[in-house]
Amino acid sequence: SQQGEEDPQALSIQEGENATMNCSYKTSINNLQWYRQNSGRGLVHLILIRSNEREKHSGRLRVTLDTSKKSSSLLITASRAADTASYFCATVRSGYSTLTFGKGTMLLVSP
Amino acid sequence: NAGVTQTPKFQVLKTGQSMTLQCAQDMNHEYMSWYRQDPGMGLRLIHYSVGAGITDQGEVPNGYNVSRSTTEDFPLRLLSAAPSQTSVYFCASSFHTQDTGELFFGEGSRLTVL
User: Of B94, B40, B100, which Cα lies nearest the Cα of A6?
Assistant: First the structure.
């Protein structure tokens, strides 16, 4: 069963705008990760945030984690057309070693 | 450095046929896994391995078999293909096991079962 659920399912914005995607999960976790998938390609790891961390940055990406609400958000600032892709959150549940993925958010950035 | 290599990229099977999807990684990763991706379902874990000689079932293991005789290779076998196994299959590997870190994915194998 899906551990993480992304919201919204689809997001359409203009270049230069910020994009925010949310992820909710059900059980306690070791870490939460975000991946990007371009159409027809494999997934690419973006960022990992551990359960004892609240915020992480990587370039134009900012990830927050609220373990009390069992939720995370991914912010992409100053979006570019090349950011068009599907974005997935994935969690490692406490006591497990496997990664469980959500269903993804499809982001479309128009020039 | 090739990373994770999957073959074939595309395959069409008839119901009841068997086949093996190949996965190889050259990063000396202990952890390897197979996922299937279906529209609206995200990625679901089929089988995984934390090292040579060790395999375990994921969320949707029925109809699939795996083995891990070497660190580099993790083939996925479809024993008797069914239309419900039409999907895109991804192999992924990671250096970490107990606290799974970044997964490196192959480019996928698109399978159609008629």
Answer: B40
